[in-house]
């Protein structure tokens, strides 16, 4: 009979299982022999508790060799009569299982930190040789490693007036430099860096002589080397505020003289202090 019933169900795309499995079946068929010629076929839901339908089959008039096939056909007809109900139950069970399963939580997206920064920075430079310069830089940085960045700047400077025995001195400067920046520590909004930088400073000095002296102008290039600390406050992913201070020396100095005496210059120790904003992208 199993062979006949499996064949009838296969036409509907349904498998017949005669042994218990871990997963709950779509439905169960229960056959009960009430008499020698009478069989009751009961269709149960997959939970084996809900009765969906049943049919009593009288086999007295059926030849003995055809009774198993008759039972298989009757069971298939009972299943077909209740097929729509079985489909509704299967759909509700699938929806309930889906509702119990937690929605997968997508991992947080890690946004890559910007590689470039560019912006203005206001600076004050002081030198042991006497020159004091105020001005503004255009600064950029390219992060080529997780904690390392190449830095560059170009800037203009106006010197503070300086008096000498024979008049007053006024200086201006153009500068450009390259350096490296190493990130030491970080928090969500703050970065602490060490930096090293070498700058070329083109200093132009103008002497305004007292009566009886001679005015003179001169230009020369000094080279400075500095190291220091900068703090970067991240206002957003694309905007940051930078504060820096550094100390260094002047490998190639420029001296300003009056009658052979040094009165000012870009020489000896070098100190810098600055702050500005940068766009990150």
Task: State the gist of this model.
The protein is mainly beta and 281 residues long. Helix content is 15%, strand content 58%.
Fold and architecture overview:
With 281 residues, the chain is mainly beta. The chain has 2 domains: 93 residues, no CATH class; 165 residues, Porin (Beta Barrel). The chain is 15% helix and 58% strand. The chain contains 3 helices and 14 strands. The strands form 3 sheets. An 8-stranded antiparallel barrel has the order 4-5-6-8-9-10-11-14. It has a 3-stranded antiparallel sheet with strand order 1-2-3, with helices on one face. Strand 9 and strand 10 form a beta hairpin. Helix 1 packs parallel to helix 2. The protein is rod-shaped, with a radius of gyration of 46 Å. It starts with a helix and ends with a strand.
Summarize the topology:
Blueprint lengths: L1 H9 L16 E7 L4 E8 L5 E8 L8 H15 L1 H18 L15 E12 L4 E14 L2 E12 L2 E3 L2 E20 L3 E20 L6 E21 L2 E14 L1 E5 L2 E6 L2 E12 L1
Antiparallel strand pairs: 1-2, 2-3, 4-5, 4-14, 5-6, 6-8, 7-8, 8-9, 9-10, 10-11, 11-14, 12-13
Helix pairs in contact: 1-2
